Amino acid sequence: MEVSHRLGGRTGACKGSDGVRRAPVKRILQAAAVLGIAVMPVLGNASRAVEVPPRRLLEVVDFGPPVVSPDGKRVAFRTEQASIERNAWDTVWYVQDMDGNAPPRRVADGGIPLRDAAGGPLATSVVWSPDGRWIHYIAVMDGKIDVWRAAADGWGAEPVTRDAADVRGFSLSRDGRSMIYRVGATRAQVVAAEQDEYDRGIRIDRKVPVGHNLFRSLDIQGRRATQRYEGMWFGLAPLLADLPDQWKIIDLPGGEAKDLTASARPAPPLEPSGLAGVLPRPWKLAVEPEGSRIALLTRVGEAEGMREPPHVQLAVLSDRTSTQPVICGSALCTGRAVSGIQWRPGSDEVLFTVTDPEAGFAQSIFRWNVRTGEAHPVVAAGGLLSGGRDRFSACGVSAVALACVAAEADRPPRLERVDLATGARQVLFEPNESLASDMASAAPARLLRWTDAEGNAFTGQLFEAQGVGGPAPLFVTYYSCTGFLRGGTGDEWPLASLAANGISALCITDPPGYILDPVERYGRGVSAVRAAVDLLASEGKVDRSKVGMGGFSFGSEVTYQTLMRSDLLAAASVASTSIEPNYVLFSTLRDDAFFGSLRSLWGLGTPEETPDRWRTLSPIYHLDRIRAPMLFQLAEQEYLFSLGLSLPLVRRSQAELYVFPNEPHQKFQPRHKLAVYERNLDWFRFWLRGDEDSHPAKAEQYARWHAMRTAGDERAKVEGLGGP
User: In this model, does residue 724 exceed pLDDT 70?
Assistant: First the structure.
């Protein structure tokens, strides 16, 4: 894959229309030479057709949270990129000067990315040595999770811990001469416990995930692991994960690990429960480095049918025993959707991020002086300006600048420096520049705002169909649409590729506030889709008879409900299951760990206890209302939960069901992701445009889909509805 860079600098840099400083071409070529990257000139007609196929969206380079060095002069960060050929993810650690005058220096491989049990990537964490010579990080190498360190000058990397057990967490001493870390069961103990179960049989109890493959079914910590339920709902953890932490200390460099006495163990990080009991519990806090002050974000106001109060209050405490918070009273931090906080080193300022729902969840950063009470804007972005894909993650920070990952709906992520005094933005590293250029010309997105009949306000990012003379087909996905949009939440539907193939693609973000009543919660989503279709059809932009929809997790649920409650959809594709009795069957031993959430979030007991509620909410009781063809592309860990809906539709030639082995809630294997992207593109091109890929390998696929169309026409005639 061709990769190129934009490297901002203090001299010789040019400024783009977005106000971000970029390096001239000569320095870009020099940087590419340092990194060993070929930069090919663009020849021929500048107006040539540009395509954004699904593979390019999958192979985007992502960033982990940047961390600035103690002296503020350098930033360390990790990149992650899919490899289709090896069905793996490549990760690399870099160190770069914050002035942007040189390209980033590759200092180490990052190993296999760690993921949570749902398949989502875990945030990377790096700790600088006090002298700035080393970065320390957790990495999975050769099936072992250890703490590694890499020389910031690129000299090399080496493991620090070399423990028989996987490392769960670590910290450096103030002088950097020792490291404390914690582990659980040894890898040999875990393997032995798994094998013992395999040999003797697995006794099914409340912790066994019934419906999953039970032996080493999922790669969640760099190896295929047996899992057990942990906590509420569908939380999972490896076997023996419930064993307590064992703490150890090691002298650096190269010392022997020793057990740490209980009295020498570090205090746990401050949690909201550790504050004075008279205070409302904050949902986020930030302790002042080298100090005692604590910045807080607390939800306030009347919940009124919501899970949480609607507003956010920014405040600071003098220390953890204080009961008198100082509240930010500036207009810049009141009545705003404050989503992140951190201290500006060596100052009285708290930096806070506002993620604005009315601006499509674009982010702005402000600084609040807790002594004077004054607040000032730092920078406003058109998308995310954070520590990565997670909008709640933090930029790296020094006394004078931020190091942020910036991304917009149609512009992939890059690393930027933001000056805290002036707000000036400077691109440090842009490995996705070629894709960014092609997206700008072939698949630009625009922010769409609208309201439904009840006055609910919505936003979405619209990729308009290319090369269509009249109203275009429309694809809709619903849930969260922040940062660079590849395929909506879960990355399943290649939005830019759909637009390039003549199908407008709209990603709708669920408004803030989790509605407790599921009928209202789903109703808001269905209403958002209906109102968006009405708006775009009234403008002559889309053909309301050719609307498709897809969703992941909550987005899948809204897709099911849209099929049940409306005739909007001509085709649908889902990546997750629906609420149906199989949920209860497979979780019947889990007591409140499962049924507590089922009652609180859906108002459901067993189907025998709440039959009317089940008939209202579950799609399996509304098969007669679901008329659109459906594509199920589900993870092996979950597909059994949906068989009450998927199999009847497959049986009557109205659906296809694909199951992806060794995948959790969110698929992450690159080959699976590419297959999902490409099949979804084919699916909606066929049902919304009548287009077919001429590749011979797909002939059987289209034969099945033509048979599905014929079966649908026959059902419509019998029901007196007419053909599609």
Answer: no
On whether the CB atoms of residues 589 and 205 are closer than 8 A, the answer is: yes
Residue 593 CB neighbour total at 10 angstroms:
18
Which residues neighbour 481 within 8 Å (Cβ) at sequence distance 6 or greater? Answer: 360, 361, 409, 459, 460, 461, 488, 489, 507, 508, 509
Measured distance CA(104)–CA(98) in Å, rounded: 10
Question: In this structure, are residues 548 and 688 in contact, taking their beta carbons and an 8 Å threshold?
Answer: yes
Whether 16 has a pLDDT exceeding 80, the answer reads: no
Between CA 591 and CA 620 the distance in angstroms is 24
- Mean pLDDT, to the nearest integer, of 284-290? 94
CB atoms within 10 A of CB 514: 13
CA angle 85, 91, 93 (to 5 degrees): 150
**17's tokens:** 């229309």
What is the per-residue pLDDT for 721? Answer: 57
pLDDT tens per residue, range 473-493: 999 999 999 999 999 999 999
Query: How many angstroms separate the CA atoms of 697 and 672, rounded?
Result: 17
- CATH dotted code for 443-580+618-719: 3.40.50.1820
Alpha carbon dihedral 677, 679, 683, 689, in 10-degree steps, equals: 70
To which residue do tokens 């098969």 refer?
Answer: 623
List of E strands, 41-177: 62-63, 67-68, 74-83, 88-97, 105-109, 126-128, 134-141, 144-151, 157-159, 165-172
Domains of the chain, residue spans: 1-48+275-440, 68-264, 443-580+618-719
At 55-95, the pLDDT tens digits run 999 999 999 999 999 999 999 999 999 999 999 999 999 99
Q: Which tokens is 364 given?
A: 């702005």
Q: Are strands 425-429 and 20-22 parallel, antiparallel or unpaired?
A: parallel
Give pLDDT, residue 28: 42
Of the listed ranges 229-238, 371-380, 548-557, 605-614, the least confidently predicted one is 229-238
- In angstroms, the CA 297 to CA 336 distance is 12
Q: Are residues 534 and 542 in contact, defined by beta-carbon separation less than 8 angstroms?
A: no
Distance CA 461, CA 505 (A): 8
Q: What is the pLDDT of residue 217?
A: 85
What string of DSSP letters covers 658-704? EEETT--SS---HHHHHHHHHHHHHHHHHHHH------GGGHHHHHH
pLDDT digit string, tens, across residues 576-635? 998 899 988 999 998 888 999 899 999 999 999 999 999 999 999 999 999 999 999 999
DSSP calls for 328-387: P-STTTSSS-EEEEEEPTTSSEEEEEEEEGGGTSEEEEEEEETTT--EEEEEE-SSEEES
At 91-107, the pLDDT tens digits run 999 999 999 999 999 99
Q: How far apart are CA 688 and CA 680, in angstroms?
A: 12
* 322-341 average pLDDT score: 96
CA 467 to CA 448: how far, in whole Å? 21
Whole-angstrom distance, CA of residue 538 vs CA of residue 483: 28
Residue 209: what pLDDT? Answer: 93
Q: Please, how many CA atoms are within 13 Å of residue 280, restricted to the half-sphere of its CB?
A: 17
8 Å CB contact between 140 and 83: no
Tell me the C-alpha to C-alpha distance, in Å, between residue 266 and each of 134, 181, 261. 22, 10, 10
pTM attached to this predicted model = 0.92
Q: Do domains 1-48+275-440 and 443-580+618-719 have the same CATH topology?
A: no
Specify the DSSP element, H or E, that contains 198. Answer: helix 187-200
The CATH architecture that domain 1-48+275-440 belongs to is 6 Propeller (2.120)
How far is residue 348 from each of residues 5, 289, 404, 420, 562, measured CA to CA in Å?
Answer: 36, 11, 21, 14, 50
